[in-house]
Amino acid sequence: MSAFPVSALADDEVFTDEQIEYYKNLGLQGTTVNIYNWGEYISDGSEGSMDAVAEFERLTGCTVNYTNYESNENMYSKLTGGGVSYDVIVPSDYMIERLVEEDMLLELDYDNIPNMKYIDKQFQNLYFDPEQKYSVCYNVGTTVLIYNKNLVAEEPDSWDVLWDKQYKDQVLMFNNPRDAFAIGQAVLGMDFNSTNEQDWVDCANLMAQQKDAVNPVYVMDEVFNLMESGEYALATYYAGDYLLMLDNNEDLGYCFPKEGVNAFYDAFCIPTCSKNKTGGEAFINFMHEPQVAFENTEYIFYRSPNVTVQENEKSSLYGSEVIYADNLNTQYFKNLPQNIIELENSLWTQVKSGKLSVDSKERDRKIYIECSVLGGVAVAVIIAKLISNAKKKKEQDLSDLYD
Q: Phi and psi of 219, rounded to 5°?
């Protein structure tokens, strides 16, 4: 942690007198700050790490309610469902665009976020927030293909391996539509932000073929335990998380598939449902204190936009080829038109349920044929019975006539 001054530590082992005084004077004592963040995405005090939330509470005297979500879509549904109040959320780039367009974010007061000075210029005024009104970059990353060296025949370099039948029941896939479809789009050479509905249908059909071929398990944070235990051969997830898994299973490898990967930004924002905006801005500022940003990065293994972390040669990620990978084939997600979002969600539901799979279609076709055959037999029986009844009636009529 040599990137920040330690000359005024006084009785505090972590923070300077100046930092302590700053947070004490914010007047947050007795208030509550509600934080809504991704799972496994903050230093939480385990394994000797800093408990970032507890330290923020200690310095400010406030109480933090900290809850998790698994995907941008889950977070969005929670916000739009109403009845909630969050003071800080951590959406990704394309979701920030959507939230801005729908007037669901508050403009930030950077007087309350002086640590913005530590954010690398290349991570400011990004395409989803060009005027830097609504967000402070938290982490930068990419998707990655993770494989178990003991279960994979040869080192992969393509997403194609996720369709290889020899890995049936051994594949873990993203359990959210945007990340999952991006893999199919990459294989098909598509734009991740296509507004052509047929592109999404074609991609969904490809994902349905994967379901038939390998029967993937759709997961998010469950991927940690499943890959670390060595149960599965292949997984899709985020590059920083691969390093965390590697710590617990040295037999795991990774690759950035040649077809391309998603590169993303996650950023702190304050939604319009916030009831403690000052507390939210204080938390954002706190997370970029040099000490906190360093400890946090050491725990979650994502690239920090904080220059004091990037330049710290004592960082375990310093020079990492996984975190600081160069010359990758990447695309960024952008907000999609509403008709595409609705189509994407519908297709995703159909992919996961198996309704688009060839196996499912064959079963439906077989049932249809069987029903048609049975229906034909039933009709034939009814017609035969009607003919028989008519014949009997005619015979009876003739008998009555002669009598």
A: -140, 165
